[in-house]
Amino acid sequence: MFIKTITAASLIALAAPTLAMACEIGARVSVVGNEFPAIQTVGAGAQECEGGEVTTNLTADHQTINLPGMQGNPAEYTSAIIANSSIVALMNEDVIRPLGDLIEKHGKDLQPTQIITIGGEPMAVAFMANAQHLVYRADLLEEAGLDVPTTYEEMLEAAKTLREKGISENPVGGPYKAGWNLAQEFNNMFLGHGGTHFKDGTAEPNVNTPEGVATLEMMKALAEYMNPDYLTHDSNGTNAEFRAGNVALMHMWGSRAATMTDADGVPQEVVDGFAIAGPLTVGGGETPASTLWWDGFTVAKNIPDEEAEATFVALMHGIRPEILEDEETAKQAVWLIEGYKPTEAAKGVFAAAQSGTIPYPMLPYMGLLHTALGNELSDFMQGKESAEQALSDVEAAYTAAAKEQGFLK
Amino acid sequence: MASKAQRAPLGLRLATGGFVVVWLILAAFPFLWTLWGSFKVELDFFSIADWTNALTGENTEKVYGTPFTGAGYRGAWVQEEFWRAVINTFVVCFFVVCTSLTIGTLGGYALSRSGFRYTFWLLIIALIFRAMPPVTLVSGYLLPFFEWNVWGILPTAIIVLVAINQPFTLWMLHSFFQNIPKELDESAKVDGCTQFQAFRHVIVPVMWPGVITTGLFSFLLAYNDFVVTAMLLSESNRTMIPEIAAFLGTTQTEGNVMFAVAAVVSATAPLFVLVMFFQRQIVSGLTAGAVKG
Amino acid sequence: MKHRTFFWFFLPTGLAMLLFIALPLVSVIIQSTHAPHEAVFRTVENCGPFGCVEETTIDQEATRAIRDAEPLGRFVGLDIYLDRGHLAAQEVGEAWANRESIGDFLSRLGNLPFYRAMAFTLTYTFTVTPLLIVLGLMIALAVNTVTQRLKGFIIFFSLLPMIVTPLVGSLILFWMLDSRGVLGTFIQWAANDPDLSLKASTPLTWAMLIVYGIWSSAPFAFVVFYAGLQTLPQDQIEAAQIDGATRWQQVKYVIVPHLMPLVTFVALIQLMDNFRVLEPIIGFNAQAHATSLSWIILNDLGGETRQLSAASATSVMTILGVAILLTPVLIRTWRDFRSKT
Least CB-CB distance to B43: which of A35, A59, A266? Predict the structure, then answer.
């Protein structure tokens, strides 16, 4: 048995307005997940349950430990909180169970859209959403006499004007750090161009296409207006640029847009000029160049049914609609829970969902392609090779990995 | 320590002194800069707008009215309860140093005193073991540790850190023991001591400089480790370094860099005391070393 | 020492290494010759908050039987070692056959992840290791002449580059070296080039990583050499002085030979550590310009889909690489060992 301390402070903070809500469980619950505030809230909510020990392990390294922690029999973790990108790793290894009967018994509060079904089987319950979208400096655009761009082509025009007028030297920002971030920017732009990552219904890569080349060219064109070190800038780095007032137009995660100007010492003009808009389209397409994400919980397969039931009940308690009564909690995320009213900061994610943005693909081999993109695209961005060469490198790297994993013959 | 005959000419002394000063600036400047910056707000610390902000604390002054703020420290220690991680770190470090020195001293001593060929090969194998990237080792441990229900607790991390660091400890202690003349324990054995008694009564008293130095490295390894502690400890048992990494945030979530900076600075303070202590031991080792003459 | 006595002395440390390093090593080698079974797919309709889409998933029923029969996966021999992510036998062969010149061949080679990582790793290892040994020795000699009272402080400050955790140490330097940071501004001023950015250029990133490597490891060499200097027999120095040796000659003929076993030790450890360079690459966000084998392993294990077999193969290659790298030093140690016994 593990001895884990329950953070008493968070318990008390949450328990106060919800004393009336009782939560009775009859077995052990152990949750692994990422550590951001919304998930901390859900975890603390689950820990209010009585009758069984509820432990949580919320850490940025959750993705490395959730699979081994659920592969044993009985599994250490009875639940993993995951996103649409990371559920596939658990699906691939068959460590999570269908939730049909549990939802029927305990899921009255759920919105139908919260239930993630895979081939008709409900496998996860989503509770929050995320997407990348535009954030910008309204004051700078006004100063330059520009409208808020709705396409990347307009963004380029705007960036040109901003630079020429001397308003901003490097007006464009974006998490373009080589690796996962750069690959994610490629995915956004590629989907916006109407590309599909794989040939229909197979694991064959399909990125070395005219859409792929157009995507890379647009990314490079944007990079011309970014800080020269853009390949080292992740979300933290780009946010710091924005806060320092150097950036006027930026593609950023919705989950981070809300707290953009909260940090100490952000100059007043940045706070006042900060504005949020939906994701942009590109190349005359209708689909925004972004992806939609959800975070949700799963229940382990290799555990007794009582533990599965206790886990489901406890986590349902963690995401009950009443948690939104707390204003701080309501601001923590774009909740998918019944009764959620979008805050100002959630505007971008809502616009993304409404304008037909494509969800990040839930495919068994998508992770491998993402890794390959992240490794091979930086050569093109640095001008060391052509777009076609970079994309064919991506396909070759992916193919080698997919063969090894048994996804390709 | 220099005797009269050793006294260096003025030019050389100036050159040496100058070199030490330059080196100290190189070694300490980033840390002093961090120390100074830890009392500023994030925007001043990074000072993207103008690097002099980091010195003057312009944005800090706008927010707090003074160019210095303890907000980072308060956030890390009070809000995020960094002291828990500090306690965990010292538990881990203490046991790692004690265990690895105990078993390493025995092993290293044996390797230095046995003339058989297999000792050489054992040393080589230990070296090859050390070549194994820790990331691979640790990801291999995950599944069995979960199965045996020992994942996430401090003893597991301690044992793994000791084992991973054994090759280094063995090599280092082996070289130190080789510098201690064999005649010392040989003569003790002639006097009727067993090997262990010879070790206990003759070698132990003179081995401290080497053991302290090795211990310092074991300590630093455990103290600075990220791979093992991040992957093998649960959130509530985390040591300082993974905790600091958690302050930094991830792609989709905001971190608090100033908490991390304040935590790094406060984490260095105990090391100052430690090094001061260690330094005296090394100097006292001078007299111990004189025994071998 | 008798075999029996040796056994009992060595047992605890030997057991720790056997359990936690040797066994995993065996399993890593086995893993690197096996790959997951070929997946059976089926197309399904997936629904969520954003609507429904047709997607592919793994048919668990169909896959389970194969998995249960051979839990290790399918045996693929050395295929993983030879695929594009590792030695890339086929791609190298093609590059050689289609080469226009040696330079063209090398640039094609540089496009493959393994060879790209090796190019940086070897450059890094062979510049950082000798330089840090020299620097460490110089610091040790200099600090040894300083008055007793100041030594404690100097040793502490000299150790700072090593004791501030690399994760954060490199992050702080990363910001200081930014083109707008204090060091970045200084370098721009010194180079008289206001647009200079260390992080945007490959050669400058390499230089930055190498300087960081020397800076952060020199304290290690310093401490070891400093401890060694404390055991330097005073009579040898005096004898050299009586013979009229200059200071430089004393260093060259008395001090350095006395420290030689420690130099070998530092060289061994640092060659190995530098060959496995990882933290600076992560801390400086430098993967667009520089990668290493350890970085490849971390990258394979860190994706959404963990590539265990690929990471195992790279690990085995790291060990072989270290073994090759250390051979000269090991042969030397072997000769010393033989001459002593």
Answer: A266
User: Which tens digit of pLDDT belongs to each residue from C119-153?
Assistant: 999 999 999 999 999 999 999 999 888 877 788 78
- Interface touch C265/B171, C-beta < 8 Å: yes
CB-CB under 8 Å, C44 with A119: yes
- Are the CB atoms for A273 and A139 separated by under 8 Å? yes
Shortest CA gap A103–chain C (Å): 15
CATH architecture for residues B82-290: Orthogonal Bundle (1.10)
pLDDT of residue B69: 87
For testing the chain B interface, which of C3, C13, C72, C171 should be mutated: the one with the most B CBs within 10 Å?
C13
Q: Do B141 and C22 touch (CB under 8 A)?
A: no
Summarised one tens digit per residue, pLDDT across range A123-148 is: 999 999 999 999 999 999 999 999 99
Q: Three-state DSSP class for A78?
A: coil
Residue A216 has pLDDT above 70, yes or no: yes
Average pLDDT on A145-169 reads 95
Give the max Cα distance, chain A.
67
Mean pLDDT on A66-70: 92
Distance from CA of A95 to the nearest CA of B (A): 13
Closest residue to C307, CB basis, from A84, A202, A405: A405
Compute the CA torsion angle C242, C244, C246, C251 (nearest 10 deg).
Answer: -50
- What does the pLDDT read at residue A294? 94
Phi, psi dihedrals of residue A126, rounded to the nearest 5°:
-85, 145
pLDDT at C341: 59
ipTM of model: 0.90
Query: Quick one: pLDDT at residue A299?
Result: 96
Structure tokens at A280: 């942009």
**B-to-C residue pairs, Cβ atoms closer than 8 angstroms:** 265
- What average pLDDT does chain B have? 84
Closest to B157 (Cα-Cα) out of B225, B86, B236, B244: B225
Domain with CATH 1.10.3720.10 in chain B: 82-290
Are the C-beta atoms of A131 and A357 separated by less than 8 Å?
yes
How far apart, in whole angstroms, are the C-alpha atoms of residue A326 and residue B3? 75
Q: Measured in Å, how far apart are chain B's first and last C-alpha atoms?
A: 18
Mean pLDDT of chain C: 88
Strand-strand pairing, A79-83 and A29-33: parallel
Largest separation between any pair of C-alpha atoms in chain B: 77
Q: Kindly state the DSSP code that residue B253 receives in the 8-state scheme.
A: S
* DSSP assignment letter at B233: B
Give the one of C48, C174, C287 whose C-beta lies nearest to A359's C-beta: C48
Domains and CATH numbers, chain C: 34-75 (no CATH), 77-104 (no CATH), 113-340 (1.10.3720.10)
CB within 8 Å: A35 and B255: no
